[in-house]
Amino acid sequence: IVEWITDPAILASLVTLTAMEIVLGIDNIVFISVLVNKLPPDHAKRARQIGLGLALVFRIVLLSLLFVLIHLSEPLFHVFDHGVSIRDLILLGGGLFLLVKATHEIHKDVEAKGEDEASLSKVAQASFAAIIAQIIVIDLVFSVDSIITAIGMAEHVSVMIVAVIIAVAVMYAASGWISRFIQEHPTTRMLALSFLLMIGFALIADGAGFHIPRAYLYTAMAFSAGVELLNVLARRNAAKHKK
Fold this sequence. Notes:
- This protein is mainly α.
- The chain is 83% helix and 4% strand.
- The protein contains ten helices and two strands.
- It has a two-stranded antiparallel ribbon.
- Strand 1 (75-79) and strand 2 (82-85) form a beta hairpin.
- The longest helix is centred in the N-terminal third of the chain and has 29 residues, at 8-36.
- The relative contact order is 0.17.
- The model has no long low-confidence stretch (mean pLDDT 78).
């Protein structure tokens, strides 16, 4: 361990891989933050902890199964000129899941069907279980995608594991703030849901053989988030001046 820690090339791959895992983890954070938004605060925190804990476990387990992961990218059959692998099927399924979930949540918000306190508390436990189940599904999809992407960036499994642990720790630190921000500023929920739609389309495109560079997606997300942040600040300042 000391040998690879003192090797500049390995340290460079660790930094690069950690940065990549953090960037790829943005999708995971947005999804979990949107899901737990309607839970009571204590349940929301527990759901985030379980969700990100599972993300870490899935990634480390997948790293220990590198041989299996390599074979996930081998074509099972061909559709026209595209060889469809197990990884492609996982991405297609995950993308469809995100599209359906985000569309359903957007429909509920647009219809604006309110729920009273009694009904919310009555379904709290059922909602918690359903949310954990959905987090497990999407954690697995994002874990497969990020680990297969990481395999070519580092030669040592130990480096990958350390990078994943650091990335998940950063995701955990950021998830609480993002969840609170979405809860305090309801308009950002619609923006987050639109991000999930975009990520879903990207996963489906990847699974179909049409790779969309993640830099394009994250640039669009950063720009949209910046505009929304300006709107939040403008509304806050306007509210202060009215008092």
